Amino acid sequence: MNETHASMLPDLKERVRxxxxxxxxxxxxxxIERDVEALDEIAGTLRRQAREAGIYGPQLPKEYGGLALPxxxxxxxxxxxxxxxxxxxxxxxxxxxxxxxLLLDLLASPAQRERFLGPIARGEKRACFAMTEPAPGAGxxxxxxxxxxxxxxxxWVLDGHKKFISGGVKADIxxxxxxxxxxxxxxxxxxxxxxxxxxxxxxxxxxxxIGGHAExxxxxxxxxxxxxxxxxxxxxxxxxxxxxxxRLSHCMxxxxxxxxxxxxAQRYVSQRVSFGAPLAxxxxxxxxxxxxxxxxxxxxxxxxxxxxxxxxxxSVKHYSSMTKVFVSEAVGRVADRAMQMCGALGVSEDExxxxxxxxxxxxxxxxxxxxxxxxxxxxxxxxRNLSP
Length: 388
Ligand SMILES: Cc1cc2nc3c(=O)[nH]c(=O)nc-3n(C[C@H](O)[C@H](O)[C@H](O)COP(=O)(O)OP(=O)(O)OC[C@H]3O[C@@H](n4cnc5c(N)ncnc54)[C@H](O)[C@@H]3O)c2cc1C
Prior knowledge:
By secondary structure, this protein is α+β, with helices and mostly antiparallel strands. Helices cover 51% and strands 15% of the residues.
């Protein structure tokens, strides 16, 4: 982070905090949390307000109205905005479009930038990234990818079945990896293409997911010859460009979510009297507060370190795996303690803790299951004799 960014950051953080407290949090509620259309409508309103507040798109290029901040600064703003369940949607730094825009920025041709990246970055259109398939297709093991793309008459013909695709319901644009003769290739195209169908919105534990979680069928989908994103046969290498920053960005946002859960819990235990004294006076409650802040602090340090390495252009393959495993488990512990501290209120939908707790759990599964990351971390250390 250079001096200009460092000097801007305190004011930006304060503006984001105020926006989240005064504009975004009051709009939260069970009526909208799983309603794809309502979330899209709210996104439009909030994004206009975020632009007016000068906080839109911390990570997005300036040509699309973003702030073009380095990762280290984004880490602090993503945390700040994710305190609000609608915050990342408002700033257009929510998944899947935050990593989708990043991938397009790195790989798209000039025509693809204009047609796909511009509308996503300006918040006019949404995209999904559709990799996972029902068994026996790709899940933790991407080499099991069954979706195919065949060449014919200067076009590509795509066939496949995808599942659990965040943002897939009513997405305008799809980014899809498929097997081709030359190896796995990425495609980007309009979801209005004949043969592309969203068959259902899968009910998941999570809420506040813009575009829900789609199951998608592609049958003889004819794509133009220029639908390839990047280089034919380089799909897996290209996907890595998205996955590492994507999992790190999730860590940044989840620290904000867990912080919000603790803010609610700390307020509750300070006010709620039991056995003649506020709960906050009890040592077992104090231990939960202390352990949660230790988890939050350690999560910030490991995440900021990785963000700094990305800003320096260094590989974060190893450290982003460590960071994802640690933070996904730490924020789960924090949300769980916050729930415990609030008793029945924590489990209820009257407070945001239950939504945060439900959101944190799947983070141990997506962006690479923690078991897969642990095994990759250990193999790197043992086989290459890596040391800190
Ligand atoms: C909320 C949510 C959002 C998602 N969004 C998207 C999306 O937008 N796009 C997309 O393409 N996919 C998405 N996914 C799917 C996600 O990427 C997959 O769930 C993930 O890759 C794991 O695949 P799987 O569910 O098929 O689990 P499996 O591959 O069936 O694995 C099941 C479990 O087995 C264990 N396991 C697997 N492999 C190993 C190993 N090598 N060593 C030890 N244990 C192992 C792990 O515990 C793992 O959780 C999403 C999932 C969730 C929960």
